[in-house]
């Protein structure tokens, strides 16, 4: 249901008083919540699980990653309905419950003998797959949404590296055992998580000025979702295809960064995971967060699409730089990360936000994000299956990971650009985006 007149007036009054402090509060709350969530999701990936049980002919790390991603993918498909229909008043409690449930699965992972403890990571993925959409629901539909969402997205760029460093520290410096390390890492973040979720719950609804600039965001039922998809089917399918490809590359780079670094520089320090992602995160924040300065929704959409296409170019530059010896391993991973995250984060921060704003369609980003996210992770599952089939047929992908990763990066970069250009043209020429674009109001 739309916010009531009283709620709208109250929200406008609070935002007029707090202004910048409210924006800082919001971005800290969102960044902190999602950063902490990664403490329950990613630390297990820091180990290669050498010498651990083999299940169904697969290496144990491959089994663990596939189990979690399968659960995460299923959760994304569920989220198309659950997240898009979630009433704002229930978001905070729901996302806190899901993350704490994920922590319980890590306890099960520690207590259950290998290899069957992999089933707990499937449950972990189901618990965590809808968290992003619920956090995003607190931020969308505002005049500064891009900046807030960029801050949210930087959390998972930075957290991906930090959580690997945390996991490695617990294993190497604190002597925590391999299977107890994930639940121990999660325990570090329980109290901060509760604090950040409380901060989220105190963010007021979008003001009247926000609604005028970006359109009102409302829950979407099955009928509304179907109408929206039919109206923009061609563009959404092209965008989902490009997003699927970039999700695959982003996920492989994240989950198998240890294997990539073993090939690039066997003497690397675990801090490298954090250093590259901090650099990438800062660049993404500056590039995509600055789109809030573009008041014209149509132009902001165009800029975001252009940055997504530019990301494909950065991936190509990184690959050429590596093969020619111009780039060091550090700068290769940083530039490739920037190229990967530019289109990925542009979808999160700007493309869907400004699409709804310039068409004035009734809906929310949650539906659109979970539509593309579900198929993105479906693609990642498919790549993991192919990777392991190659291994079972004698192609040692894990032993020489760059032989798998470099061709994958080339393919994603080229195909992503090939899909994004006609997608951009489709939306630019769509009847609903014609006429005078809506602008932020002062």
Question: What can you tell me about this protein's structure?
Answer:
The structure is a single chain. This protein has 442 residues and is an all-alpha fold. It has one domain (5-433): Up-down Bundle (Growth Hormone, Chain: A), CATH 1.20.1250. Helix content is 74%, strand content 0%. It has 18 helices and no strands. The chain has helices at residues 5-18, 20-38, 60-85, 91-111, 118-128, 131-137, 145-172, 181-188, 190-201, 208-214, 222-231, 233-255, 257-264, 272-289, 297-324, 329-359, 365-392, 402-429. The protein is globular. The chain crosses the membrane at residues 22-41, 53-72, 93-113, 119-139, 146-166, 178-200, 232-252, 272-294, 301-322, 328-347, 367-386, 406-428.
Structure described in brief:
The protein has helices at residues 5-18, 20-38, 60-85, 91-111, 118-128, 131-137, 145-172, 181-188, 190-201, 208-214, 222-231, 233-255, 257-264, 272-289, 297-324, 329-359, 365-392, 402-429. With 442 residues, it is mostly helical.
Low-confidence stretches: 1-5
State the end-to-end CA separation. 26 Å
- Count all strands and give the number: 0
Mean pLDDT score: 87
Largest sheet: none
CATH superfamily: MFS general substrate transporter like domains
Overall number of domains: 1
Q: Determine the oligomeric state from the structure.
A: single chain
Strand content: under 5%
The CATH class assignment is: Mainly Alpha
Helices and strands, in order, run as HHHHHHHHHHHHHHHHHH
Helix content class: over 70%
């Amino acid at each position: 249901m739309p916010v009531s007149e009283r709620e709208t007036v109250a929200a406008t009054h609070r935002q007029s008083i707090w202004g910048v402090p409210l924006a800082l509060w919001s971005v800290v709350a969102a960044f902190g919540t999602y950063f902490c969530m990664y403490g329950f999701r990613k630390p297990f990936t820091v180990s290669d699980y050498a010498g651990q049980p083999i299940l169904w002919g697969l290496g144990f790390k491959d089994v663990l990653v596939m189990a979690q991603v399968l659960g995460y993918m299923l959760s994304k498909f569920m989220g198309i309905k659950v997240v898009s229909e979630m009433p704002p008043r229930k978001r905070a409690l729901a996302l806190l419950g899901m993350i704490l449930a994920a922590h319980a699965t890590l306890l099960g992972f520690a207590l259950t003998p290998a290899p069957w403890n992999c089933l707990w990571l499937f449950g972990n993925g189901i618990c965590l797959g809808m968290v992003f959409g619920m956090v995003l629901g607190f931020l969308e539909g505002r005049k500064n949404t891009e900046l807030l969402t960029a801050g949210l997205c930087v959390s998972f760029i930075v957290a991906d590296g930090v959580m690997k460093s945390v996991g490695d520290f617990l294993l190497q410096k604190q002597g925590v055992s391999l299977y107890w390390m994930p639940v121990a890492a999660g325990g570090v973040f329980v109290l901060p998580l509760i604090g950040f979720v409380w901060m989220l719950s105190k963010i007021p609804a979008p003001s009247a000025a926000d609604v005028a600039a970006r359109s009102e965001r409302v829950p979407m039922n099955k009928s509304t979702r179907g109408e929206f998809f039919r109206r923009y089917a061609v563009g959404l399918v092209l965008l989902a295809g490009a997003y699927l490809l970039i999700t695959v590359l982003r996920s492989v780079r994240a989950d198998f960064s240890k294997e990539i670094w073993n090939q690039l520089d066997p003497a690397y320090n675990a801090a490298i995971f954090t250093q590259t992602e901090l650099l990438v995160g800062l660049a993404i924040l500056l590039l995509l967060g600055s789109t809030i300065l573009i008041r014209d929704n149509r132009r902001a959409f165009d800029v975001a699409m252009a940055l997504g296409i530019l990301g494909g170019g950065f991936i190509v530059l990184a690959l050429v730089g590596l093969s020619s010896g111009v780039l060091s391993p550090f700068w290769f991973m940083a530039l490739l990360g920037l190229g990967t995250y530019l289109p990925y984060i542009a979808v999160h921060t700007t493309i869907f936000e400004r699409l709804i704003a310039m068409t004035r369609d009734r809906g929310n980003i949650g539906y659109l994000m979970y539509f593309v996210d579900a198929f993105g992770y479906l693609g990642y599952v498919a790549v993991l299956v192919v990777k392991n089939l190659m291994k079972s047929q004698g192609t040692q992908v894990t032993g020489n990971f760059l032989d798998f990763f470099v061709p994958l990066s080339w393919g994603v970069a080229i195909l992503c650009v090939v899909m994004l250009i006609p997608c951009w043209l489709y939306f630019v020429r769509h009847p609903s985006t014609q006429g005078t674009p809506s602008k932020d109001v002062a």
